[in-house]
Known about the structure:
transmembrane helix; mainly alpha; membrane; rod-shaped; transmembrane; 167 residues
Amino acid sequence: xxxxxxxxxxxxxxxxxxxxxxxxxxxxxxxxxxxxxxxxxxxxxxxxxxxxxxxxxxxxxxxxxxxxxxxxxxxxxxxxxxxxxxxxxxxxxxxxxxxxxxxxxxxxxxxxxxxxxxxxxxxxxxxxxxxxxxxxxxxxxxxxxxxxxxxxxxxxxxxxxxxxxxx
Length: 167
């Protein structure tokens, strides 16, 4: 007599239900939704800022260099673009020292200090009768566009600006 003949058939267990989900799956779903939401908000904010920067660059390129309000227009465009990157700060109220610290907050002040100086001289010339020493309008345009392209992306995430709410 074979001992295997005495064995009973194998009983398969009931299939495991996929619903309701276990707590771990709910946590994974919640974490995924949170990550997608945060990533979407970041992408939306970044796209909005880039759009503002690109519009500003096109506006500066389209400016007439012989216009009487050329310097004021460039200063206005740059400040509006910075305001788009720093919506919680009173950018339009910033004056000499505060504006210079914004202009010099990035890498460009070390690698090309003449560009930062050109933009700061542009700012200070708005409050004087003379525009001597400003340089060529093409240089001013180039400096403003280069500053917008290189410094603005780092400006939004920079903590080097400190508290500039005191005007």
